[in-house]
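ok new one. same drill as before - structure tokens go in, u give me an amino acid for every spot. 703 of them this time. try not to just spam alanines like last time pls lmao
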């Protein structure tokens, strides 16, 4: 849910008796001057930093010897332990410490850490960092802001290593409704891109990064899963988190025996193993397996685990992913995993030392196999690591998508829109025209059983509920006036949605534009202005930087301006403010409708679909309303940021519009005078700077 609240004006307002016109500062100039307290961004360009000496100067099979042996552990992610009967990691550690050697924390940087993770960290117990929010194949996804947040969290929790499913976690930005997990396209191009992402993240954080084979129902490409990840490990000079459950699912969906391909996989690269339960499902007679993290572990998963543990000379950890199950239900699984772990022989050497993977590991550690298996990224000075300048992660999209990226986005569209999936299968050339996909890639799309695209029919529904929460007021009005929400269903079949996915756009902002277009055609005058307001609130949440810009010393600035030395200083509208023009009464109506929906006691999306009687008064569709939106980061994470709406005058709106791009104070002061401020223009500008509405351009970080 994305709450909205109004605010009392603190920067400027309209009065009837204002003798300086309709621009007036209401800052208390007689009281103590306020200092705008926001943090300066001290973050370095992390991608330009060299990794620690261990990572930059040593190859993986040397580096792995420095990784700690963690034993058997358990996983969690934000909110996992809050459910009724869910496993409490701290309770597991107290009752069965032999099963709680460490906690693998699944982390989305926008959510942070939940109380269960905080408790574990406070106790000083070992952890690993499992990312849930990065597409390592896409350079633009390793942006500076995300890397800085990963570095901050990692420095705090001090994980033994970083790991995570190597796939598409989101089809656009890191925002609600975009989250999913699709496996990579199993081809050479994707392996190279994934390996480059691993190297970037390792360099940026100074920690080992272990890719995990992800779950999936649809796998595209020309390689076996294990052959693909063997190539990733080679190109990325990295280790591997081998998920036995995910591998078992892959093998069965492809009609293969559980151990297929393991004989040629470099098991010396495996540092961590995962075990989890799974459930069988059916779609029109086609059986598939869902990775549900239950305690019902497949026999094939146990078979894989039993086989690989004695053959992984660098194995350091095994996780039982059972975070949403009771401790009692999970104990048998933990006991079986622990018994397999305990069969390892002392000193870190494992049984089965005649295995070729172990021999290859020992040979490579002595430096005898480099000629046999050259690293394509090897450098004579760095011992195989990329130079830091080559590992820089861009802060925005760079060039067109690769074939693999394009194909993954087509997959997303097929999963969201079954009609589109049918057209791809029946008329691929016509349906995919303009995407420049080669024939082999198109053939990969048509190879799986057509029923795989219907395996997760709830996917569009989950994204739909996210949109219903963010656009609650406008959609509730539409539901009340039309007795249905056809606009949502139509959106998920629209050209707008398909363009959004294929171009890495924003689901919410695309829907907002689509909603405004449809709302304008309705007879209900409330729908369009509410859609405008909610779209701009969504935009502000997505474009504002994660942290406030910096501290502005109002005393020094006032003195500077008073002395006449600051007139040439450029200023701009602060990046956590946004201007909106809509219809008179919209902000108050928005607040009242949200209150009505909340009063039902139902989940917000349910209340939107079946709304109570909604207010109509206050709205005047014939008069404009000018709003200044202000971001409140008080709750702490981007996902829960509040946005306040402050009504301002037309003159102040015009003045601030002039400052949406950098403008010198002298020019802005002249604009204020032309709008009627006369002799008070300087005082108004100082008040707006003190209130944080205007920020010196030289001191503001780029969003």
């Amino acid at each position: 849910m994305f709450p909205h609240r109004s605010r009392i004006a603190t920067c400027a307002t309209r009065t009837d008796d204002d003798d300086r016109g309709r621009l007036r500062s209401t800052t208390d100039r007689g009281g103590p001057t306020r200092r705008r307290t926001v943090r300066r961004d001290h973050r370095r360009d992390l991608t330009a930093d060299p990794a620690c000496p261990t990572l930059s100067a040593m190859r993986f099979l040397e580096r792995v010897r420095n990784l700690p042996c963690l034993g058997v552990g358990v996983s969690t992610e934000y909110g996992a332990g809050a459910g009724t009967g869910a496993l409490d990691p701290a309770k597991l550690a107290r009752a069965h410490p032999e099963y709680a050697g460490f906690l693998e924390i699944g982390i989305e940087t926008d959510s942070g850490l939940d109380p269960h993770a905080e408790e574990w960290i406070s106790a000083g117990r070992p952890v690993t960092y499992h990312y849930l929010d990065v597409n390592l194949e896409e350079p633009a996804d390793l942006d500076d802001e995300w890397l800085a947040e990963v570095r901050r969290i990692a420095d705090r929790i001090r994980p033994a290593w970083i790991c995570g499913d190597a796939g598409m976690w989101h089809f656009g930005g890191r925002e609600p409704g975009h989250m999913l997990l699709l496996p990579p396209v199993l081809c050479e191009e994707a392996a190279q891109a994934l390996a480059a992402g691993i190297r970037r993240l390792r360099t940026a954080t100074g920690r080992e990064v272990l890719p995990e084979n992800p779950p999936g129902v649809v796998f595209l490409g020309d390689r076996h899963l294990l052959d693909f990840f063997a190539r990733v490990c080679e190109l990325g000079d990295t280790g591997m988190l081998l998920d036995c459950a995910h591998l078992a699912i892959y093998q069965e969906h492809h009609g293969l025996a559980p151990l297929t391909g393991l004989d040629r996989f470099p098991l010396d690269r495996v540092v961590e193993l995962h075990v989890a339960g799974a459930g069988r499902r059916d779609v029109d007679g086609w059986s598939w397996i869902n990775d549900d993290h239950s305690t019902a572990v497949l026999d094939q998963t146990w078979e894989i685990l039993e086989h690989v543990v004695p053959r992984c000379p660098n194995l350091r950890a095994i996780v039982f992913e059972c975070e949403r199950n009771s401790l009692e239900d999970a104990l048998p699984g933990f006991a079986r995993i622990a018994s397999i772990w305990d069969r390892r022989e002392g000193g870190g050497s494992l049984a089965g030392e005649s295995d070729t993977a172990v021999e290859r590991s020992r040979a490579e550690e002595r430096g005898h196999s480099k000629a046999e298996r050259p690293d394509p990224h090897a450098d004579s000075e760095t011992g195989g690591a990329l130079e830091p300048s080559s590992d820089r992660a861009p802060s925005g999209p760079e060039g067109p998508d690769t074939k693999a990226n394009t194909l993954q986005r087509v997959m997303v569209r097929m999963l969201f829109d079954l009609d589109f999936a049918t057209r791809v299968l029946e008329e691929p050339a016509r349906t995919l025209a303009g995407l420049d996909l080669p024939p082999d890639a198109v053939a990969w799309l048509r190879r799986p059983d057509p029923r795989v695209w219907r395996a997760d029919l709830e996917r569009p529904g989950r994204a739909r509920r996210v949109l219903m929460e963010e656009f609650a007021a406008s959609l509730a009005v539409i539901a009340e006036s039309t007795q249905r929400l056809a606009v949502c269903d139509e959106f998920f079949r629209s050209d707008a949605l398909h363009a959004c996915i294929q171009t890495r756009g924003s689901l919410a902002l695309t829907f907002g534009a689509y909603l405004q277009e449809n709302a304008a055609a309705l007879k209900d005058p409330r729908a369009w202005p509410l859609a405008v307001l909610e779209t701009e609130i969504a935009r502000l949440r997505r474009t504002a930087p994660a942290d406030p810009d910096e501290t502005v010393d109002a005393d020094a600035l006032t003195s500077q301006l008073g002395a006449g030395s600051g007139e040439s200083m450029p200023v701009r509208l602060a990046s956590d403010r946004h201007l909106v023009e809509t219809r008179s009464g919209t902000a108050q109506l928005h607040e009242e409708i949200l209150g009505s929906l909340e009063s039902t006691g139902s989940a917000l999306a349910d209340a939107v679909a079946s709304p109570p009687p909604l207010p109509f008064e206050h709205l005047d569709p014939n008069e404009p309303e000018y709003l200044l939106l202000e971001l409140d980061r008080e709750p702490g994470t981007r996902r829960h940021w509040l946005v306040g709406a402050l009504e301002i005058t037309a003159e102040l709106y015009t003045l601030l519009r002039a400052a949406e791009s950098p403008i010198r104070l002298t020019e802005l002061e002249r604009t204020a005078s032309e709008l009627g401020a006369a002799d008070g223009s300087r005082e108004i500008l100082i008040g707006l700077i003190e209130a944080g509405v205007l920020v010196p351009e030289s001191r503001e970080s780029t969003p």
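Confidence is low (pLDDT under 50) at residues 1-22, 24-54, 346-399, 699-703. and btw The two ends are 24 Å apart (CA to CA).
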